Each structure stands twice: as C-alpha cells, then as structure tokens.
Amino acid sequence: MFGYVKPCKPQLRICEYEVYKAVYCGLCKQLGREYGPFSRLTLNYDFTFLALLQMGMQEGGGAFSPGRCLLNPLKRMPCCDPGPSLSFSGSTAMIMFYYKALDNYNDGGIGQKMLALLVRPFVRRAYQKAAQQYPEVAKVMYDTISKQSDVESRLCESVDEASEPTALALSGICALLAQDAQQKRVLERFGYLLGRYIYLADALDDLEEDIAHHSYNPFLLREKLADAPFVPPEQLAHIREEAKGSLFLTIGEIGKAYSLLPIAQYQPILENIVYLGLRTTVEQILQPKEAKHPK
What we know:
Shape: globular
Low-confidence stretches: none
Order of helices and strands: HHEEHHHHHHHHHH
Strand content: 5-15%
Number of helices: 12
Structural class: mainly alpha
CATH superfamily: Farnesyl Diphosphate Synthase
Number of strands: 2
Radius of gyration: 19 Å
Mean pLDDT: 89
Helix content: 55-70%
C-alpha cells in the first residue's frame, strides 16, 4: 500500500480529524512497540484506513487516551490505545514492506539495491514476527507477489491484468476482517477494487519517473511508449485522461461496495475517505508537478 487512501481534510469536522489523527498516532506507536522504532517509517494513510475500517465494523472498537509523540513531546495528544485492529494493520504493513524491499533488491536501481541490503536484517526479523502472528496475511502476499512479477516480466500491456495482483492481495486481506460469510463477500469485492485503485493511482503518479527510467508502467506500454526517450505533452495528457477515467470508475464501484458494509463507528471519517478522499487524491496526482511541489 502506498499512501493514496486518505481523507479530504477540509471536509472533515475538527473532532473527526482529531479521531483520525489519534488512530494514525496509535498505529505509529503500535509499530514501534511490536517491531522497533524503524518500523514507524512504514506508516502511511492506507494502513490507518485499514485499522479504521476494522474498528468501524465493531461495536465499541477502539479506545483513546492522551499520549505524547516523539515529534511533539511537550504536548499530550489523543491517541488510539493498543488493540487487535492496530496490531493487524501494523503487521500487514511489515509483511508488505518485506516484499517491497525484496522487489527493490531484485528490480531496483543500484541505490535501491544498496538500501534494501542495509535494511534486510531488520525487515526479515519484522516479517518473521508479523507472519507468525498473522500467517493468513503472509500467505495472501506470498500467493500474489509472484503474479505481479510475472506481469512485469511479460511487459503486460493490459492495465486490468497489471492491477490484478494488487487487487487480489487487498481482496484477501480485507476478507480477513469479515465476521461472517456475507461480510466476507462484500469485503473481498471492496478490497479488490481498493487494490485496483491503489495500483492505478501509483502507476499514474509515477508516469514521469517511469518514462525517465524506462520502468514498467502499463499506461505507457498500452500506448507503445515504454521505450520512448520523450513523450509529447499531448500524448501524456491523453494517458492521464484515460487513467483518470479508469480511476473514477473504480472509485464509483468502491463506493457501492462500501455502502454494503455494516459500519457501526467512525462512519463520517470512512465516508469522507471513500467518497471524497479517493477522488481528491486522483485530482492531486493530475496536477502539474510544479503545482504539487511549489518552490
């Protein structure tokens, strides 16, 4: 997961944003407790959403108490207390990080290979601990990671096929949150669509970088531009428009699946992310780079 599943902050009430931050902080602390301080670097919005979703489907899930943050130690802030949802989300983060490090070592540049070697001892220990706690998550990732490698090695031009492994991974992980068979079917569908959204958003966000490094990107391969030294602005605009259409259709389907979930808590926050945040993130990705990163 890459940090694309986040709220539209301006549309959250202050109290809702405080709850969201408290879950984010609680997950950060959970990672530190279970896997050490370096594990906190794996924290992102996607895993916060996963924890919120699991707590949201439980009656009375999630308790909060004042705590201190390493980045702001003088001020006590609300923080989500340790619990199964934070543990599940944090362990999932470590398992995914392990496979990401492996991918960087196998297919990355010299810098990524060196970094992967440096973090390998820590990542391996964290993975072994997380996989022992949640073997189902480890199995889901093991079963899907080879499919992603196969897609990329074949230089697959189909965007649907390229996004399939990530979609299946999230489908399997979300299904583990289900409490009965009906919930499982809905969560499998929801997770599948969410995984597809994350993959497409990441591919769209990396367009310029993948052009520069001739890296795998299904949007470029579909347009026969994977090896092009330069992509004209009009062609790049066409790719972005096509990707935008695919992402917005996927977001619409995510909303339909979400509406079938039995949300008992944090409904305003979850709805903000699903109905506003996902779309806002795509619109931010589509902004010119200089607008996203002003000097």
